Amino acid sequence: MGSVSLKIGDGTARFKRATIFSSLLNILMLLSVIATNLFALYAFTSKPKPGGGGGGNSNFSLVSDQLTLILNEISSSQKKLARMEKDLVGYESIDLSRPNLAAELGLFLRPHPLPLGKDSRTGITEMVSSVGHSCEKSPDLLSQFMTYKVSGPCPDDWSLGQKLILRGCEPLPRRRCFSKVIPKVGFQPLPSSLWKPVSDKAVSWSGLGCKSFECVNTKKVTRECNACLDLGNGSAESQRFVKAKSKNDFLIDDVLTLGSGGIRIVFDIAGGSGTFAARMAERGVTVITDTLNVDAPFSEFIAARGLFPLYLSLDHRFPFYDNVFDLVHASSGLDVGGRVEKLEFLMFDLDRILRAGGLFWLDNFPCATDDKKKILTRIIERFGYKKLKWVVGEKSDASGKSEVYLSAVLQKPQRAA
Fold it and tell me: Which three-class secondary structure state does DSSP give residue 294?
């Protein structure tokens, strides 16, 4: 498990292992105490020189000077060890002594010693609660998020929490307050709930520009979400994945036939309104849809359809064990700002959670330039996936502008251990 502290978090309770730095510091302090005692013993037992009046006072002064020197050395060593640890870790922890820090935040992050001391099996000495290390960059927002009445209603500030997440402050600290309760009325049982319109009153509109689904459906919220919350008969959303508009649009039934061993559980990245998950649910496949509420209440909308939303940014390590998904579906959400290294980290994590023989469905990924297409292709080829489908073609958006897209279905290989 290594050295784990509150600086690194994945949303669960963490334990801090005694580090080499704390061990060195303890040894140094022990040696200093021993040296101090020996020197004091020598000073008090040594005989003063003949005729040297005030020898006792001289000894006391000498002991005092030596103690001051030793304490200064200990303080200096502590600072050096702290700098060494900071250099190795690469970033600072949250300073709990910072002025105006919310009391709840300090209480949540403060390490708690184990009641029975060091655990002999794991070597841990104290338990800490995890929080994203980038939270240190937004202390004011974080303190605002953690300012509330304990056991009272939580502030209506989900948009503040999402702002912190998008700044890398993920996971957020837990809070001891009750979230706002929104009556969930008019829900239908599965499978009819998959295509029933969701009531405006069943979701929270705080922090959003629109206050109704009618408003949201008049805007292009994201690249893929153009009236994507309109589930009416004949709408574009109701035709997705079952009716192709271009050669880049693969049909769900065609992709399912490619899955060796069957497709049972799927991870959908940046899944919008959950229509991909709805189509899969109709075919008995379980889908977890990763989403954030960017300009629309996507998470609540997906849940209202009877589907599973996961409120998580793409900068967070996916909270799944290795090799568990039969298929991973991603589209333009895979675009992480054009940074090659960031895309590589994301692709390796996708590969980690996809089982051998599983499918990676890249659905209409925009390739604005040839360089972007070459970079993506080169990254994909590093993993040695088998190309079951590979289509590059042009599509026109709502404004009539044409753009190049890549769609592919790739199969993860069996790799030697």
Answer: coil
Average pLDDT across each block of 10 residues of the chain; the chain has 417 residues. List them in order.
Answer: 37 42 61 67 57 57 73 74 52 69 86 82 81 86 95 94 92 94 85 91 89 88 81 86 92 92 93 94 96 92 95 92 97 77 91 96 87 86 94 76 89 86
Output the pLDDT for position 6.
37
| pLDDT value of residue 135 | 87
Strands in 95-209 per DSSP E: 112-113, 124-129
What is residue 32's predicted lDDT score, i.e. its pLDDT? 66
Tell me the one-letter amino acid at 112: H
Picking from 285, 287, 292, the residue whose alpha carbon sits closest to that of residue 314 is 292
Q: How distant, in Å, are the alpha carbons of 213, 240, 300, 330 from that of 305?
A: 14, 16, 9, 20
Reported pTM: 0.74
- Cβ neighbors of 38 (< 8 A, separation 6 or more) are none
Which token pair is 136? 């240190």
Residues 283, 287, 291, CA angle at the centre, nearest 5°?
140
Domain ranges in the chain with CATH number 3.40.50.150: 192-411
* Residue 184, token pair as written in the block: 């969930």
| Residue given tokens 């004949």 in the structure block | 234
Q: What is the pLDDT of residue 127?
A: 80
3-class secondary structure per residue, 29-55: HHHHHHHHHHHHHHHHHCCCCCCCCCH
Look at domain 192-411 and name its CATH class. alpha beta
Q: Is the dihedral of CA 9, 10, 15, 16 positive or negative?
A: negative
For residue 314, with 0-12 CB atoms within 10 Å meaning exposed, 13-18 middle and 19 or more buried, which class applies? buried
| Whole-angstrom Cα Rg for the chain | 30
Nearest to 264 by CA among 323, 307, 355, 327: 327
Per-residue CA distances from 228 to 203, 223, 260, 355 (Å):
16, 11, 31, 30
